[in-house]
Amino acid sequence: MSATLDTAFETHRPRLMALAYRLLGSRSDAEEVVQDAWLRWHQADRAAIRDLEGWLVTTTTRLGIDRLRLARTEREVYPGPWLPEPLTADDSPGPEQQADVAGQVSLAFLALLEKLGPEERAAFLLKDVFDYDYPQIAELLGHTEANCRQMVSRARTRVQAERPRFTVAADTHRHLLERFMHAMQRGDRESIMALLHADARLVSDGGGKVTAVIRPLEGAQRIADLYWAVARRAGDVSELKLGHVNGEPALLRFHEGQLHSISTITVDEDGRITQVLSVLNPDKLRGLV
To answer: How far is CA 168 from CA 115, 267, 271, in A?
Structure first.
């Protein structure tokens, strides 16, 4: 009987994990929420469950919202900026990996979702990412359809206001990132500045455990100066590689053979880098590569 229950749950685990991760922006938190959903499934009166997927999605969403409320309180006292925890990373990317993009989400998008309230975030994801209709969302969240429509509308407005209006081709994105990597390796301030938008922004998350910029860094000059200093300090023990994180091109920095940071970029319609997100917190990088 237990094996049958496990098989039924495992069929839906990928979808539950995808939902929990997008809701929480944390691989470890998402895994805990899905595990809690598994425990509740084993304890539930299964004879009363007519729609297994619906029950599991509802349970996972509600557990996720509760965990997100707690996480938001924790993140208020987080040392420096908080960035999402990467789900996947690969230091040997190939063209075939571009197909995986649809199955993941960018760190920049997850960071935008942090601006939404827990139920607002859940409603937005259920509607715009997982294609649930409003009656389903209303039943799942315990709100009226009208309230759910308002939540989704507000969320769309906030996300679209800050999301890039232009998406560069994958090859262009990768080529720009490669040029950025080479300029960083050389500590070439002029080349770095030429690749950055004048108002570019750098956000780094060290979690108070490693050296990182504790406030967002604004402006091409200041960002270029930082990478110049990093190149001078790191010397031969630091290595940069082009890879993929959550299905998008990323820079992976290794220090003495260990993954030290991952960085992703946002690019505007003129081919300039407008944002750099760097995750350095070792807890968020453990086991990725």
So the answer is: 24, 7, 8
Range of the domain at 23: 1-77
36-70 pLDDT, tens per residue? 999 999 898 878 888 889 999 999 999 999 999 99
Which residue type sits at 114?
Answer: E
DSSP 51: -
pLDDT digits over 74-123, tens only? Answer: 999 999 999 999 998 887 655 444 444 434 589 999 999 999 999 999 99
Are 207 and 79 spatial neighbours (Cβ–Cβ below 8 Å)? yes
**Structurally, how many domains does the chain consist of?**
2
- Based on the fold, state whether residues 69 and 176 are members of the same structural domain: no
CA angle in degrees (0–180, nearest 5) for 87-240-187: 130
Query: What are the b/e assignments for 238-261, b being 16+ CB within 10 Å?
Result: bebbbbbbbbbbbbbbbeeeebbb
**CA–CA gap between residue 18 and residue 98 (Å, rounded):** 18
Instruction: Check which CATH number belongs to the domain holding 32 and give it.
Output: 1.10.1740.10
Q: Does residue 229 sit within a domain?
A: yes
Q: Is 250 left (phi over 0), alpha (psi -120 to 50) or beta?
A: beta
Give the pTM. 0.90
pLDDT in tens, 162-171: 887 777 888 8
Mean of the per-residue pLDDT values for the chain? 90
108 within some domain: no
Contact criterion met (CB below 8 Å) for 242 and 178: yes
| Residue 84, domain member (yes or no) | no
Angle between helices 52-75 and 134-141 (to 10 degrees): 60
Reduce the DSSP state of residue 104 to 3 states and report it. coil
Rounded CA-CA distance 138/147 in Å is 8
More confident residue, 199 or 166: 199
List all residues 6 or more positions away from 49 whose beta carbon is below 8 Å from its beta carbon: 55
